């Protein structure tokens, strides 16, 4: 596919995750809204939704585009690609300013196979960004996400990946971080299981804090969630969890964990899927209302889950549809400040918190040399 990409976008040199030190050139800085809102004079909440999202775009916490593109012999994201739910025109129509690209693996991969498959997905994701440098821009920090926004690009962050991606090695975790990984899901491994974190698992969380890799607790056991919330110095998040009180899906969170997550200044990113939140935009809004009430406005965000194979409510079929969801919230009385936190502010806060914690930790803590055999053997 890389060869096909080279044919499609010859001469692309920008967009690497390995050197993100440069901001956009002065002539590219966007001082006004880089998107073009679509107004509907007959729907005041929808018109207001576009205006709010123009100032506070969506930071989408979970998107599966790279893996979906791997099945295609050819694609063009910048002009539009009907075979997927995510492309640049629809991202701009939906006022999406940032995306986390999932690196989760198929079931059954572990050990060296999981590490190798994750490296392949990292390579694939970087190739997609390089092929779409006019619409997408790689980012690792809150500042780089803001730079991408100011350049009229959609920021792309890599992760979450499953914990098996690090192969029970903190050295591999560090290398994945150097390659751009910014979120790791703490489930499905011996050191983060139904029994909670082992000693090696606790050391992995400390090393993630030192690096700036955000802990994702979606799908983690309650014991793991409790321990990580007490241990982590950086904010944590759930990349795809809704309210179990409304819909009893195993990845959704009960109210006690939602309240604990809110007290720890964590973030619950609500998936826009029929399975976890329900078949209508009103169902999704019910979850957002509930989590805001239980955990606070600073605890709730959005995960589109587009191009992951999940079914979506009809009104939220692709990445252009976020204004419809925000319009529903406005009809329910959400004010602009809470919408701004939901779409953009809360994710930026978590990214800033991870960056700050990492800088502080690196001044007092050397890279960990702990091995799982030493701590859990």
List the helices and strands and how they pair.
Elements: H1 2-8, H2 44-55, E1 58-63, H3 65-69, H4 88-93, E2 96-101, H5 111-131, E3 136-138, H6 142-150, E4 154-158, E5 161-162, H7 170-178, E6 183-185, E7 192-193, E8 196-197, H8 199-211, E9 214-216, H9 222-231, E10 237-238, H10 255-263, E11 267-271, H11 281-295, E12 300-303, H12 322-331, H13 336-364, H14 372-376
Parallel strand pairs: 1-2, 2-4, 3-4, 5-6, 6-9, 10-11, 11-12
Antiparallel strand pairs: 7-8
Helix pairs in contact: 1-5, 2-12, 7-8, 8-13, 11-12
GO molecular function: metallodipeptidase activity
Protein name: Dipeptidase
GO biological process, one term: proteolysis
Plain-language structure description:
This protein has 377 residues and is an alpha/beta fold. It has one domain (45-364): Metal-dependent hydrolases (TIM Barrel, Alpha-Beta Barrel). It is 42% helix and 11% strand. The chain contains 14 helices and 12 strands. The strands form 4 sheets. A 4-stranded parallel beta sheet has the order 1-2-4-3, with helices on both faces. Strands 5-6-9 form a 3-stranded parallel beta sheet. The radius of gyration is 20 Å and the shape is globular. The N and C termini lie far apart (42 Å). The model is unreliable at 1-15 and 25-39 (pLDDT under 50).
């Amino acid at each position: 596919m890389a060869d096909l990409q080279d044919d499609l976008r010859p001469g692309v040199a920008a967009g690497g995750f390995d050197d993100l030190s440069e901001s956009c050139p002065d002539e590219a800085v966007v001082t006004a809204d880089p998107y073009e809102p679509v107004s509907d004079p007959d729907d005041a909440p929808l018109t207001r939704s576009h205006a709010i999202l123009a100032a506070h775009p969506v930071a989408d916490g979970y998107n599966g585009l790279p893996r979906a593109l791997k099945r295609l012999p050819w694609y063009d994201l910048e002009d539009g690609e009907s075979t997927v739910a995510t492309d640049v025109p629809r991202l701009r129509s939906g006022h999406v300013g940032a995306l986390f690209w999932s690196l989760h693996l198929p079931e059954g991969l572990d050990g060296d196979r999981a590490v190798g498959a994750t490296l392949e997905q990292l390579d694939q994701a970087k190739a997609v960004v390089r092929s779409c440098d006019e619409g997408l821009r790689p980012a690792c920090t809150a500042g780089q996400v803001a730079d991408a926004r100011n350049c009229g690009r959609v920021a792309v962050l890599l992760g979450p990946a499953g914990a098996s991606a690090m192969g029970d090695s903190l050295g591999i975790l560090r290398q994945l971080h150097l390659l751009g990984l910014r979120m790791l899901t703490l489930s499905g491994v011996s050191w983060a299981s139904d029994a909670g974190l082992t000693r090696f698992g606790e050391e992995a969380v400390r090393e993630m804090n030192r690096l700036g890799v955000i802990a994702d607790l979606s799908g983690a056991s309650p014991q793991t969630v409790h321990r990580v919330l007490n241990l982590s110095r950086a904010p944590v998040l759930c990349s795809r969890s809704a309210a179990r009180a409304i819909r009893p899906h195993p990845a959704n969170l009960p109210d006690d964990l939602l309240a604990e997550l809110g007290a720890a200044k964590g973030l619950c990113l609500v998936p826009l899927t029929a399975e976890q939140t329900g078949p209508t935009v009103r169902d999704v809004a019910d979850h957002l209302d509930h989590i805001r009430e239980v955990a606070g406005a600073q605890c709730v965000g959005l995960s589109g889950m587009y191009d992951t194979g999940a079914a979506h409510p009809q009104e939220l079929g692709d990445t252009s549809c976020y204004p419809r969801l925000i319009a529903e919230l406005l009809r329910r009385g959400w004010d602009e400040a809470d919408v701004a936190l939901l779409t953009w502010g809360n994710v930026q806060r978590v990214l800033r918190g991870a960056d700050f914690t990492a800088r502080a930790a690196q001044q007092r803590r050397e890279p960990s040399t702990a091995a799982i055999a030493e701590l859990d053997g």
